[in-house]
């Protein structure tokens, strides 16, 4: 049963009983359903609202939110720039429309040369073009002019992927940008909060200390491209305009 006791602390709208807890979501679909309950009072059947899901993990979350709130769904294609030799960690993020964000503090510690950084960005750009072809049939990034966009992922870790997504939404004309994630640490929410126009929705907020997005889920695995395509084909929420 979804907890409905909400608390707004600063700019974060959360479910207070879930604060700091682990294993609170059965899977990404369940996380999306709980996130939709947070968003519903303001965004149910909202005119000119659009859910922007960040692949891959944000897709099942975004689909659940979009279908529950009766809102159209699109994708925000953004990828982290991987640290050489470490497929799990990144030192920045790139969007389909070209925005690049670096974690400058981490870069200073990594001491990567300019050519390595340039290659990292280009590799991600090539990956994004391929994902756009597979997930969106190669269509141009959606025109967000005059739209209220709700950016959805399966969680925030460093927050740099979401920062890049917010910049892309702004540069593509969004009039209002909202961040909605099932789980995140406070430090990452504080970093992205200035770019979110009306607070951040996070069902499972964590304080200081170690954090992993996966720890919020009882069933967690990496989605491959085939599963993302299957989910997108199965939903009636996907916008094609």
Q: How would you characterize the overall build of this protein?
A:
One of its GO terms (molecular function) is glycosyltransferase activity. It comes from Oceanidesulfovibrio marinus. Residues 37-181 form the Phosphoribosyltransferase domain. A hairpin with a 4-residue loop joins strand 6 (86-95) and strand 7 (100-102). Helices cover 36% and strands 24% of the residues. Helix 1 packs parallel to helix 2 (58-69). It contains seven helices and ten strands. The termini are far apart. The model is unreliable at 1-9 (pLDDT under 50). The protein has a single domain, classed as Rossmann fold. It is α/β, with parallel strands linked by helices and 241 residues long. The strands form two sheets. It has a seven-stranded mixed sheet with strand order 1-2-10-9-8-3-4. The chain has a three-stranded antiparallel sheet with strand order 5-6-7, sandwiched between helices.
Summarize the structure.
With 241 residues, this protein is of the alpha/beta class.
